[in-house]
Amino acid sequence: MQGRRPTIQSRHGMVAAAHPLAAQAGARLLIQGGNAFDAIAATAAALNVVEPFMSSLSGMGSATLWSAAEGRVRVLDFVPPIQKSFPSDRFSQRSDLERGAHAVAMPGNLAGWCELASRYGRKPLAEILAPAIALARDGFALSEFGVAEFNEQAPLLEAWPEIYPSFAATYLPDGGPVKLGQVLRQPDMARTLGEIAAKGPDHLYRGALGQRIVGHLQSLGGLMTMDDLAAVAPRWREPFSASYRGLDIHVPPPACEAFQFLLSLKLLEGFDLAGLPKDGPEHLDLVYRAIRLAAGVRIAANNPSAETLAAIFSEDSLAQLRARLGDGVPVEGPTEQWTPQAGEDPAHTTSFSVADAEGNLVCITNSLGSPFGSGIVVPGTGLCLNNFLYWSDVQPGSPNRSKPGDELPMCMSPSISTRSGKPVLALGTPGSYGIMQTQVQAMVQHLDFGLPLQEAIEAPRSRLWDGRAIEAENRIAAETLAELRRRGHVITAFDTGWTMRCGGMQAVAVDPATGVMTGAADPRRDGYVVAV
């Protein structure tokens, strides 16, 4: 295969996930007669075990899906609003909410996974959770990526004496640092998942597990209540859609910030990228400029109304932005939030996609927030809690300042693309505010330059930061980087050709004529595809 991963294809089912054992868990449900919705929930639960630094049933996220029975795209939003008990006026900067009890937002993932499975799946929850329970009970061997995450984050969390002991007892029972092949067993998590399998998601949202979470947070000074938990409810939404190069791309609507991804593509649609040298300065200059312009619009119009969103995507607005894109004058501006947040952690998110032989196609992006989220592991549960209030806006003077009960704008973009009304591609990635950047870069490689899906995901990518700053994987030619600097980009090369700071993309494509599914997984993380 000349140093590249082979093309993985099947006509029966496909799972692409950020860890091979999680992809295997989803494939197991397909083999046992489940459909894509059973498999996506099983994959999510297994990721909760094998990448606890990225995934947790206490996190939040969203799913974009094609329901074959209904012949339509739908979005399930399981990003709960900011809890009413959140004391937003206490905080004035994001760093106040990086770790600890006040950083914990409402857990939406479990409710979302269960809603997908109960609405469209056919398997009982106990069967869906069985692979994850086995992984937690029996343990699994840590990979290089997992070793790096544990050994990077454990010393940082050690600075939090009120939360570190429970973290260490759960993830470092033999002490640290961990090493390649070390077996991690999580008996408390196995027991928690077993209780959820028997009692359902209300065990968390209205039952004993929720009481343990609330009690522990309050012991650490948090204010979350059982009423907050009971208010969590996933919402079915209509997708926001835009066309690009013959595809209709569907993503979650605001308050999700995925419209930045589609706006970047619409700006680029006015240019003949395919006629430019691939990965050359002209190609990359246009893509970077489009991303930065779209980010500026997203930040200025955070959580836009339907009317505002329609105005942003109107032909007059697009024409003005395309004129700016093509004028050659350097584009400078924020890419993160209203106030520049240079050098922000890339976030710890995961994205995974599943297709089945019945024609269903699902893409989920969900997250724990930062590495190991808030750092809080609830004693006796194995459950690591998120820090999603770090993604609220508490900056004084910001037009987007968050309040209790507000929707939480979320930089995620799980996508389903259709052609002539048929589903052809599920694609998503982690990466915080870089999500809407790196998906643009991969789609251009795939659609404009015609790269096969796996090669498009493997192609070199970059991460844009506030101002004019860009970090590029060092597989981009040095002379190209030099020309980009001459054009006004403050661009530096990573010391590696592959970095998770540029995402960890998983995708499944479907040929509607033959039914052949093609999976693709990102080597920047432990991504793997399992075909059925």
TrEMBL record:
Pfam families assigned to the protein according to its UniProt record, in alphabetical order: G_glu_transpept
Domain of life: Bacteria
Classification via SUPFAM superfamilies: N-terminal nucleophile aminohydrolases (Ntn hydrolases)
Residue numbers spanned by region Disordered: 329-349
Stated name of the protein: Gamma-glutamyltranspeptidase
Organism listed in the record: Bosea vaviloviae
The organism's taxonomic lineage, starting at the top: Bacteria, Pseudomonadati, Pseudomonadota, Alphaproteobacteria, Hyphomicrobiales
